Structure formats: C-alpha cells, structure tokens
C-alpha cells in the first residue's frame, strides 16, 4: 500500500511537470528563427527539462534540488522579499517557504522566448497552495553538460 501511494505521488509530480513542459508556448521571434532546427530543439528541450526539474524539486519539498537548477552566481529577485545572490542566499529562501508549507506550484500559460543559441527566457503566471503571482524573467542558460540553469529569476507574489 505504502509503495503504491509513493508511486502515485511520483506519477502526479511527473505528470504536473511534464504537463508544464508540454504547455510552454514557444514565442516566434528573429532569434529563434535564426537558429538551425537542431539548435532550437537543443535549447528548448534543455529549458523545458530544467524548468520541470525545478518544479518537481520545489513541489517535493527539496530546496537543495531546486537551488541546484540555478547557476552558482545566479540572481533571484522575489518581489516583495528582495534580491538573493547565489546559492548561499537562494537556498535559504526556498527552505523557508517550504518550511512554511508552500508547495504545489503550477505555471499558468508559460511562454519561452529564445534570446540566442544558449539563452531563453521563460515567463508565466503561477499559483500554489498559499500564493500566486507572475514570473517576469527566468533566464535559462545552456551549460557545458547540455543542461540549462537559471542565471536570473525575477518573480512577484501578487496574491494568496
């Protein structure tokens, strides 16, 4: 019984993040159109996967895994809370929210805009169990290992 509850929870998390990745609208622009199809696919796939990993980590209460989706020197601006620089400031922010019972983050109508062959920006409205808001700029940057990490994360809490 316990194993089936865990399996059902894992499936629900996978479905949630997979759904978000599938729902990300790709914004057509000159930067996207200037890339070869393989380069487009590489960047878009990496950003969708990284975004899904962040959502899964946060929703499972794992602040360290959520923080691992940021570059070491990333800058996160969380309005009205302030600006947080690097893992050493970002992780405690997520740990505090998780400790207060925040979870079940869901993106609403997310969009992905390609900046160049190694950079894309995700924007979205979002909601969770105890808050809602807007992501204005999640700048994802390709890494040497083929994954994407957040270099900039700007979002605001606008409601409960």
What is the strand and helix layout of this fold?
Blueprint lengths: L1 H22 L1 E3 L2 H4 L3 H23 L3 H5 L2 E10 L2 E4 L1 H13 L6 E11 L2 E9 L4 E11 L5 E12 L1
Parallel strand pairs: 1-4, 2-7
Antiparallel strand pairs: 2-3, 4-5, 5-6, 6-7
Helix pairs in contact: 1-3
Structure characterization notes:
- The protein is α/β, with parallel strands linked by helices.
- It has one domain (2-159): Nuclear Transport Factor 2, Chain: A (Roll), CATH 3.10.450.
- Helix content is 42%, strand content 38%.
- It is built from five helices and seven strands.
- Strands 1-4-5-6-7-2-3 form a seven-stranded mixed sheet.
- Helix 1 crosses helix 3 (37-59).
- The radius of gyration is 16 Å and the shape is globular.
Q: Which consecutive residue ranges, at least 5 long each, have pLDDT under 50?
A: 1-16
Number of helices: 5
- Terminal CA distance reads 35 Å
Looking across the biggest beta sheet, what order are the strands in? 1-4-5-6-7-2-3
Radius of gyration: 16 Å
* Relative helix content: 40-55%
Oligomer, anyone? single chain
The CATH class designation is Alpha Beta
């Amino acid at each position: 019984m316990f194993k089936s509850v865990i399996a059902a929870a894992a499936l629900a998390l996978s479905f949630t993040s997979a759904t978000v990745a599938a729902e990300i609208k790709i914004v057509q622009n000159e930067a996207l159109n200037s890339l070869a199809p393989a380069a487009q696919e590489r960047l878009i796939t990496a950003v969708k996967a990284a975004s899904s990993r962040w959502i899964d980590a946060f929703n499972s209460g794992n602040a360290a895994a959520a923080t691992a989706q940021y570059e070491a020197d990333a800058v996160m601006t969380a309005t009205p809370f302030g600006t947080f620089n690097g893992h050493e400031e970002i992780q405690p922010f997520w740990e505090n929210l998780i400790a207060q019972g925040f979870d079940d983050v869901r993106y609403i109508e997310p969009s992905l805009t390609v900046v160049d062959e190694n950079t894309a920006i995700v924007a979205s409205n979002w909601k969770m169990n105890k808050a809602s808001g807007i992501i204005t700029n999640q700048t994802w940057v390709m890494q040497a290992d083929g994954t994407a990490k957040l270099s900039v994360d700007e979002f605001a809490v606008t409601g409960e």
